[in-house]
Structures are given as C-alpha cells and as structure tokens.
Amino acid sequence: MSTSLNGDVKSIPIRCVIEEKLDHQSCLVSSGVPVKPESFAIVPSNTLFKDVVKTVLLKLGYSTNEALSAKGEVQIKKWKPLDLNSVSENEQASVEDMLGDLANIATLRIKIRPRSDDVKDKLLLMLLRQPYDALASKGFPISKDIVEGIVTGQDNLSEKLLKEFYLWYDKHINSPEGDLGEQRSASASKTAVGVSAGSNKSRLRVSFNHAEAAKLQEWFEIDAQPSKQTMNRYLAELNEASPRGNGFKLDLTNIMYWFKNARAAVRRNGRSTTSEDLSEDEGHIEKEIATVPPLPNSNAVYVIKNPIVGEDSDEKKGEPQTTRGVAEESDMEEELSVTDDESEMNDKDTPNELTGSSDVKTDNKKDEDDQLESQIRVPSATSSPQMHSNFVPNVAPRIPGYPFTYGAFPMAYLQSTAMQNSFYKEWNEKMQSAAAVVQAQQVNSVQQNLALLKADSLKVDCELSKAERQKRHRAFIDPVSEIPKLEQWFEKETHPSHYVIEQICDDLNRGEFRSRYPKLSPKNIQLWFKNHRAKVKRMRVGGSGINYNDLDSSQIKMSPPHLAVQMM
DNA sequence: CCCTGATTGCTTACACGTGA
DNA sequence: TCACGTGTAAGCAATCAGGG
Predict the structure, then answer these.
(1) Going from the N-terminus, what domains does chain A have, and what CATH number goes with each?
(2) Is the full-model pTM beyond 0.85?
(3) What is its main location (predicted)?
(4) What is the pLDDT of residues A8-20, one digit of tens each?
(5) Which residue is nearest to nucleotide B12 (CA to C1')?
C-alpha cells in the first residue's frame, strides 16, 4: 500500500473515523456522539506512531488545539478498538512499524472535542423547528442572549454551559424518548431495522408478534423463497394488519431476514436429526414428515397444554401456553406456566426435544424433577439439552401433515381464530392417534436409557462431587461507589455499545474501590446492564407504569449492601 | 427469602463467502 | 452484481444460584 515519496520516505494511507466528543463526557458517555464519515489521511511512514493522531488531524485540517487534545484508538477490522498507548510500548515505533502491513484493515478512531460550529449548527436546527420559548420551557440551559451571541458568531459557550448544553441535548433531542426529538429519517425511526455497521447505537431488534409469526409461517409454507415483490406485499399486509406503537413499522429487511432465518432453521433441522439417530419407528415418523414444510423457526417452540393428557375442563381448552419465545411485553401477563398434570408429557422424564424448551419446570414438579434428575443426571449437564439428548431419545415426533413436534407447536399458529377451530380439532385427533405410539416409544426409550445409565450414573455421581462442577463466581459491584455510576450511565443509555461498555469498565476499574478488589470485566458491565434492564422492566410491569426516570436510586436499588467479595 | 449476577436457549440482524 | 447460505453477534425471557 505504501507509495514512494521523495525516494526514501514512503507514505501510508490511514483510514480514520473521527468522533466529536466532550472530554468531560468520559463519564457521561453520549449516545449521540457525532461521527464523521470515514476519511483517509496520507502520513509519512516514519511518523512516530505515538504522534499519528496529531499528524492525521493536522493533515485533515484540524487545528493544533484539536489535534493535541484528541485521543486515538486503533481498530483492526471490526475487532475491539485498542487504545494507542496499549498497542505499543515502544516510544520509537513508527507508523510503518505498526500499521505497515495492516493499512488495509486498520482504522484509526479519533475522538476530538466538538467544534463550536457543532453547537451553533445544533442551535440553528433547533430554533428552526421551535421558538426559543419552547426550548426554554423544556429547561434549555442557555439564555436567549447567549444563544443569539452563538448564532451570530459573537459568543462562545463556557466549558460549564457546553456540558449543560450537551446533557440537555442528549436528553431532549438525541434520546429516542426525547420530547423534542429530531425528525429522524424514516428509515431510522419509523422502521424496525437495525443500524448500520460502525454506528454507536445498538441494533434494534424486532419481535414479531404471534399474529405476524402465524402469517409468516403460513406464507413460508406456501413459498419459502418469495420474490421481493411478494415480500413487499407481505410487508404491506403485516404493517396494515398489526400496527405497532409510535408509528413503528416493519421494514422489508425484517421480512427478508425472517425468511432467510426460517430457511436456515429448516436446514439446521434437517442436519441435526439424521436417520441414524432414530430408531426404526422414529425414522419412519421423521420420513413421514420429511415432505412437510418444517417449522421455520424451529427453535421457537411454544409449550401448550397437552390436549390429550391434560383434559382440564376448567382451563380454556386449546388455549396455547407459552413459557418463552417471541412473547412481547404486552403478552407477558398472558404467559402461563405448564401446570402439574398437563406438563406430564413435558417433564424431564420425557425428552427435552419434546417441548423444545429446556427450562420448563414448575415449582410443583420441582421435587419430582429433582428426584428423577438425580437418577439420570450427569455432572455439569444439569441444564444442557445436548447432554440430556445423550440419555433420552431424540425423538421429536411430529404429526404427519403438521410441522410441529409433539407437545409443542408455535403459538402463533393458533392466533388466527379462523384457523383455531379446524386446525385444533384436526390436530387433536391426529395427536391422539400418534400419542399412544409416541408415549410407548418414550417410555421404552427412557426405561432403556435408565437401565443403561444406572450403573454409570451412580458411579459418576460418586466420582464428581458438587464442588467439582463448575462453580459460578459472582462479581461484586460496590453499591456505594459503583452502582450509582452505573445507574447514571443506565439512565443515559440503556443499551451501551461495546465501546461504551469498555469505557464504563475502564472508568470503574480506575476507581479507588477497584484498587482493593479484583477488576471488573466488560462482561460484568454488560450483564449488569442486561439485568438492570430486566429489573426496570419488572418494576414497570409490576408497578403499573413506573418510569425509570421517576425512580430514584433508592427505589431501584433495593438490595442490601453486600459485604462478601467474591470475584470471577 | 430476596436481590441480583450469571447462564441458557431462542430469535433477529448482520457480515462474509460463494456461485450463477 | 445479486441472491443465497452460513456463521455468529446481539438482545430478550426465563431461570439458576450465590450471598446477605
């Protein structure tokens, strides 16, 4: 990649991404850091690597001040960016030494303080959309005089006001819930599509509701590879049929991805269950269903009450019950667990594959499960379906003519009320005739396996004590110095990017507390955010619409301070 | 018993390679 | 160039499990 320059000194093109960011936001990481498009800077190959940021910025026309205050990271491909200082300890290493062979795949990510133009641009844009009074009513931190001064180029924001401005801007303009939110592009806000690579935003994930999944399933069975035109038709139909909140609409890519993933799932299914794995009879069943379009997202299994085993007249007959899956938030209250009798076929004495749900277990059945598990358990396989499948037959019997495994089928399939009566009646009839065969196979297989296992399991149970199983280590996060910080970050950004997580992690690890205790890893931070999201969501659901912003730390943080410290 | 960090399984999104 | 397959990252719900 190097080109000759002046005979001896070569030059190297460096791909750069420059982000404008306030220094003091290092502890208030903004989700809306303005990212400039990628650019290239040609720098002499003998430039000292430690000076590369400065050199690049000067080449790109930034001021010396900006160049000196900037910070840089090197990113190879899409891997985690590394701080320049951590890449090389050799002060004399040149750009050629460090990036000579990596120029094609390395990106220099540079963070600089925003130019005053940035504030001015933002102000002008906001004032175009609403009068100053409207901003002021939302607690806009800058006085009218100063705003006028900035807009006319006669004034600059102090460091303090700059910080307040960006905090306000992030809260009211950048945040998705921002009351004065920018008119984002239709593709960004009105659709459910993920964000482009390299963006700081976390990807948005669509959950198809049951009705949508049912339709997609239906269409998939008609044609697993519909044309774009057809998918556009599906899209229009779905968006019309199931309007989402906030004008949120599905995008064609969502449909495309769904079909793509569905096809992939079909292939996976075909591969995972070979005829060799099956007994003769089981193989027969599989062959019969081989011509049936399999469940697209075969992993999305909804456990329903067994219509044969669990004839509970008190329950809504045929009402599907979910234990997990694509249930959306609004569906959460409707989620029921499998009840005692009805879960008979779903218990752990039957193959996991029967339900496809590895964790289906109710409190009522827990003791029985434990007893049974103690008979057939292998160490460190307590919740591994793969391990279970070593001991129970991978039957996954399905009813000919239906793409669902016995004991489980997509709840979505029942969402269409028109389908419910005819489908369920027919399904129930076929299920009854299949049930006897299936049940016999299962009992047989389980008995055989138990017999085979008896000696081994006893032996193994003795050999491997509980202590030898992998022990979980629990990270300890200081409720005094660290939790408040995390909460502050959470309030700002509930889905921080990897980069932000790294920053948070670094920041916490620099704290005094971490000098005495083991460092946190980004994984710990990621988990904290994940669990905190779940917690806030729980509180919202349970507390009938509590807004996180309305909660203070004491309400969110209910756990007593931990004293013991045990790290991963 | 409760809180919360950690784990698991599933679903959707995306990157990349390959072949027509 | 495009469509497609494959692998995997990322996110979520449910659950487990350590520790006060």
Answers:
(1) 3-114 (3.10.20.710), 117-183 (no CATH), 273-468 (no CATH), 483-556 (1.10.10)
(2) no
(3) nucleus
(4) 567 777 777 777 6
(5) A205
